[in-house]
Amino acid sequence: MKQLHTLFGDKMIKAKIPSQFERYKWFSCDEGFIGIEHTALSQKEQALLSAFLTPYDEKVSLLTPEQLYWSNLLFEAPEKVIHSHHTHHSFRFTQFLIKRLFEQKIEFENALHALYSTSVTVLWIDKQSGIVIETFDDPNDLTENLSDSIEVLCHDFETSIQFFEGQIHFFPSSPRLIFEREKKWFYQIKHTVEQNHVIHFTDVLPHLVLQESSGAIQNHMIHLLDLVKDDGDLLETIKVYLECNLNVSLAAKKLYMHRNSLQYRIEKFIDRTHLDIKHFTGAVSAYLAILALKNSQDGK
Fold first, then answer.
1. Are residues 251 and 170 part of one domain?
2. Coil, helix or strand for 28?
3. Residue 22 has what DSSP assignment?
4. Which of 18-32, 200-214, 263-277 has the highest mean pLDDT?
5. For the PucR C-terminal helix-turn-helix domain, which residue ranges apply (predicted)?
6. Which range marks the domain in which residue 253 is found?
7. One domain for residues 12 and 27
8. CB-side exposure of 233: number of CA atoms within 13 Å?
9. Is residue 79 within 8 Å of 176, Cβ to Cβ?
10. What average pLDDT does the segment 210-236 reach?
11. pLDDT in tens, 81-100
């Protein structure tokens, strides 16, 4: 990359998403994309660059005006505050990460558009990740439930996909700062909830609470589990039960366990920890303690 800078100087730029195709020839690299002005590239240099960088096909990948608008906001204007967008009063980012390198971009975009009842904008960051941007006149009209459709999507494209559905934000706001913050949260938690195809902000919040807690507070949480901390099966059972909103039938189904066996484990946990997880405060305390213990065991 340094050699390219030396060769092309200010005729070369880097970007997360290519644009200005009339001015630049784009190539993908590990850091995103590099664009070199057409006037600075000879045919021989273009052929040489194409040998170790992947040319970006603008004929296939031209951005629509709406994609270009959001691309500039998210990647070129870090602190810009937007007061409105058309007639819309709010927006939401849903970020996605595909497990493998992905070539079926157009088909995938079409499938994403079909999931939503309103028009959405899809931006690709690289061959494995991107963003779905929703804008709303009234967020109370939301009807989509991604969880109902993602398993079908994963099956159709024969790959594992994770989505992080961010919060709804109102104008005026700074989309770039919001995007970066939610992306950071997504990448912090995605391995922890790897089995979830759709991650919501509420899934992230307990982990953020733990990260902001002092080591002493986390140790106090873990201390609540002293008598069960070596019983991994019991802790996983309780974690699933809590994540199923204390619904015994749903948790038993997820765990492939008889209801009575699950009830026995719940009572066992309550007897040993004195945390009554059948009630809200006990359930919250137990869940945070289990997450803190897991983080400690994982060396986080």
1. no
2. strand
3. T
4. 263-277
5. 234-292
6. 213-297
7. yes
8. 6
9. yes
10. 92
11. 777 666 778 899 999 999 88
pLDDT at 143 over 70: no
Over residues 101-107, the mean pLDDT reads 81
In the chain, which residue ranges form alpha helices assigned H by DSSP? 2-8, 43-52, 58-61, 65-75, 105-115, 147-157, 175-189, 201-212, 215-223, 232-243, 248-255, 259-273, 280-297
Angstrom CA distances, 58 to 11, 31, 63, 65, 194, stand at 19, 19, 8, 14, 34
Q: Give every CB contact of residue 254 below 8 A, 6+ residues apart in sequence.
A: 240, 244
Adjacency order of strands within the sheet including 161-170: 120-124, 129-136, 90-98, 161-170, 198-200
How far apart CA 196 and CA 182 sit, in angstroms, is 17
Q: Which two tokens stand for residue 102?
A: 């992905």
In this prediction, residue 190 carries a pLDDT of 82
What's the pLDDT at 58? 55
* Closest of 206, 161, 159, 201 to residue 184, by C-alpha: 201
Q: Which two tokens stand for residue 31?
A: 């850091």
Quick check: 202 pLDDT over 90? no
Strand order in the sheet with 12-15: 12-15, 32-37, 24-29, 54-55
| 196 and 236 part of one domain | no
Tokens found for residue 142: 């939301």
* pLDDT, position 246: 94
Say yes or no: 240 and 175 in one domain. no
46, amino acid identity = Q
**Tokens, residue 269:** 């946990």
How many domains, the chain?
3
